[in-house]
Amino acid sequence: MSFNTPIDRRNTECTKWDLMEDLFDVSPDDGLAMWTADSDYPTAPCVLEALQAAVNHGVFGYGFENDAYKNAIAWWMKTRHGWDIQNEWILTTQGLGNAIALSLDVWSEPGDGAAIFTPVYHEFAIKINKAGRVVTECPLKRSGDTYVLDLEDAQSRLTGNEKLLIWCSPQNPSGRVWTKEELQSVAAFARKNGMLLISDEIHHDLVFAGNTFVPMATAAPDFMDNTVIVTAASKTFNIAGQRTGNMIISDEGLRAAMRKRLNALDYKPSTLGVTMITAAYSPQGADWADAQINHLQTNRDIFDAGINAIPGVKSMPLQSTYLAWVDFADTGMTQEEVATRIRDVAKIAVSPGPSFGTGGETFMRFNLATQTSVVEEAVRRMQAAFADLQ
To answer: Which SS3 state, helix, strand or coil, does residue 92 take?
Structure first.
């Protein structure tokens, strides 16, 4: 099955499609689901083959983080990202969101602060608040069609109570790929202010031509005693529902603290999750991931050309991810007016910009990990919904 083969996800217990009416008042019968970050096409054939073999075997007993699984993760990080890791550094969590929640639990106390650079993945703030911690927003600075760091401003916003800095690389929602120098400056900023750096690198495989993702570990190796890297195959291979993610911690003390907490919670990885990741992180999986990038780049180019043709609307040029970050500021409309047109006229469920924190007030985020025909239809609907601006 290709990336462009239509597949109906409705009535499959799928958050993206089956909850869109409850959350966004857009019916899945005639609406388009372009909000939550998963894909509308199946995972790689090598993953499906591994799952089928497991089903054919028919026994689903207890499993463990076996050597093949850890070797596959290490191989992927080395061959795809030039990052040498050791198997003992790898801890498994119930997805990346769980990894961030565990980090808050282990390395901070209720009432402590956690810093984030906004606009950023909305679940950072949600998880900080759920844990009884306090969000400190450090807004990124707009520079033309992208974002840059303003660490002087960020410094002025810290209260001194922050114990963690939760960082997003590549950046969601803007798709910004950070440079080695920027990553080094963030690592130094965290250490200077007594914050443990949690680097979310889940979108590291979804990088477009002309851009190079740099892992925090290779950019700032001298800061790994103050850094925890969290990642997963879930976005790359559309397997988020299997709830299997990784914390890669080279520092022995940090790793021991997290392992102790995982043991106390009696957490063990899903056998099928381990099977899927082992299959995904392979040469066959790499070929599929490369083909997906080509597909996403086509979708990005079609979407940007169509959206940018609407006066006052600008899609920020994506360097990575499949999440288009669209600014409606120059339309002169309020956020509610924009949201109403997208919801009621275009009938598209999208992620509202304000949920990503300071800096997202005039934006909407669109998920492009779907069939190209769906992206083309979304563009037609958006141009019709804002036709009076043309």
So the answer is: strand
